[in-house]
Design a protein that fits this description.
Length: about 550
């Protein structure tokens, strides 16, 4: 009985430390490297955390102060993050690929006591962008001590104590720091671990998980903490150019993905099948058509035969190559195209969608593993209320909602009104309680005819239909018609054909009348994409102002 009371009184961080103690002799975290994986056991990770806590105390960093963490994913990143939380210090995680100017702006806003940097290049970039920056410390310095004193359990934290300030993408303006507290994480980790229990069933072996997304993003960090809260072995990708190799070596049972990667995986698989040609390609194409017919309820005997052949000779082989142990692919951060989700489902590999924002501790909805509806992002998780407001804006209420933005009371008041968080996302909900995300309300293009157009679904469909396209950006706010910027190694004739085909199916006000091809893709480093790869529309409009003006002048002429 006393043990049960202790469990209820513990917060997620205390449970993680207890779980690491229980996992003292087995690997809990791995770094995938060309020369072989580097692993740490629960005991080894606790020792690294203790070293970091010793350093923090010796540096005089006190409870409630802020420290920035600027480094790629690694075992040390995880150890330092847990150490900072255990000392009651607010972590400000930053994305190493962002421009030094953007990083410096966020650091000035957060005013951390110290900046922990993954390497000298990051440290020097911050020094150049912000010479007055506080102490800059390399991770090598933090973990250089040969031993550590006994530092005890994590400091006692209340539900309202802040844990982190995560800076949002800032698609149309300055990034805002989202404060998340102990209560937010307590609740959300309970939800994610319960859903993973449903996925994994009653297996007694540790979950095998693979991860490549930066921990400075809320959902990515949530997966890390969820793995530490469960019996898991989490393998970290250390080189995105080796992603396919690392995935094969890790042989995970699930991993968190972004739509872009799943789109590329699907394209690569279908391209390989086309290159192989012959009977394999024929069986695949006929089997795929039969699967779609069956899904639509119109399959005949021939379809059944082709589908059986495709499953035996093609689908299973592709599925095994993706990962013999994979139970599901989890996907979030942006809407996934229905075609891509159905492709993996056809192969026998569920794609479970998640929707959420940093302000909702990364998650609002999650698909159920046993029954999910392709094209939708699942129902609201238990204890979370969601409804539609003006302009079909998604409003959220629950213990996952953040307490406010750092140093921005006006922005906080705008986002949190009448007890509801206003997400800025336009959505819809069906009779089954499943949600679909249409786009961002602030991204709506309003033509001078008064027509409102959500650009995201059209941009994604066009991107997939134009060979070589990296991004498609729709334009036309306050104009008479739409135009587009297409980036990547694209031939103009291919783009023109794709636009013609798209326009034939669209109402007149959604038709794209002209376009500009830019051979260089938009990047995070150029300041035209956010840290998680979303379009910075205002920055793009400013960068291509001359090209946009020229397009509309030619059309007017």
């Amino acid at each position: 009985m006393l043990g049960g009371q202790r469990e209820c009184a513990m917060n997620f961080l205390e449970r993680i430390f207890e779980n690491l103690e229980r996992s003292a002799a087995r690997p809990v975290l791995r770094e995938a490297r060309p020369e072989g994986a580097v692993s740490v056991t629960g005991a080894s990770l606790l020792a690294e955390i203790a070293r970091a806590r010793d350093f923090i105390r010796a540096a005089g960093i006190s409870r409630g102060e802020r420290c920035a963490l600027l480094a790629p994913n690694s075992i040390r990143w995880a150890a330092l993050d847990l150490a900072l939380m255990a000392e009651g210090i607010v972590t400000v995680p930053l994305y190493a690929r962002q421009s030094p100017a953007e990083l410096a702006a966020m650091l000035r806003d957060a005013q951390p006591r110290a900046v922990f940097c993954g390497d000298a290049a990051l440290r020097d970039a911050i020094s150049a962008a912000w010479p007055e920056a506080p102490r800059r410390v390399l991770l090598d310095e933090v973990f250089s001590a040969s031993g550590a004193q006994h530092v005890g359990p994590p400091l006692s934290l209340s539900s309202s104590d802040p844990l982190t300030i995560i800076y949002t993408s800032g698609t149309s303006g300055e990034a805002k720091g989202v404060i998340l507290n102990v209560g937010n994480l307590d609740y959300m980790i309970g939800c994610t671990t319960a859903r993973l229990d449903l996925l994994m069933g009653k297996t007694k072996q540790p979950d095998r998980v693979f991860h490549y997304l930066p921990f400075c993003f809320a959902a990515s960090w949530l997966l890390l903490l969820s793995c530490f809260s469960r019996s898991s072995v989490l393998t970290l990708s250390m080189d995105l150019s080796r992603l396919a190799v690392e995935l094969g070596e890790a042989q995970p049972e699930y991993c968190l993905n972004v739509p872009t990667l799943l789109e590329r995986m699907r394209s690569r698989i279908e391209e390989n099948l086309r290159e192989r040609g012959g009977y394999v390609l024929r069986i695949y194409e006929r089997g795929k058509a039969a699967w779609m017919s069956r899904r639509g309820g119109g399959a005949g005997l021939a379809d059944v035969l082709w589908l059986v052949a495709a499953r035996l000779l093609v689908f299973r082989a592709v599925r095994r190559k993706l990962g013999p142990n994979l139970r599901a692919l989890i996907c979030g951060s942006a809407p996934l195209s229905l075609d891509t989700q159905l492709f993996f489902v056809m192969l026998g590999l569920p794609v479970l969608q998640v929707y959420g924002l940093t302000e909702t501790t990364g998650v609002c909805t999650m698909d159920y593993p046993a029954h999910f509806e392709p094209g939708w992002v699942g129902p609201a998780i238990p204890g979370i209320e969601m409804k539609l407001g003006e302009n079909d804006e998604i409003l959220v209420q629950g213990p996952n909602v953040f307490p406010g933005y750092w140093n921005r009371p006006e922005e906080t008041a705008k986002a949190l009104r009448d007890g509801w968080f206003h997400t800025g996302d336009q959505g819809e909900v069906n009779a089954n309680g499943n949600w679909r995300i249409v786009g961002r309300i602030k991204n709506l293009i309003i033509l001078n005819s008064g027509h409102n157009i959500a650009p995201e679904p059209m941009e994604e469909e066009l991107r997939r239909s134009i060979p070589g396209a990296e991004q498609v950006v729709l334009l036309g706010n306050g104009r008479g018609h739409l135009a587009a910027i297409v980036t990547g190694k694209v031939e103009r004739a291919h783009a023109e054909l794709a636009f013609e085909k798209a326009n034939a199916k669209l109402p007149h006000y959604k038709q794209i009348r002209m376009f500009h091809v830019e051979q260089s893709a938009l990047t995070i480093e150029s300041g035209l994409l956010t840290a998680n790869g979303k379009l910075k529309r205002d920055a793009i409009a400013a960068r291509f102002a001359n090209e946009i003006a020229a397009m509309y002048q030619r059309k007017a002429g």
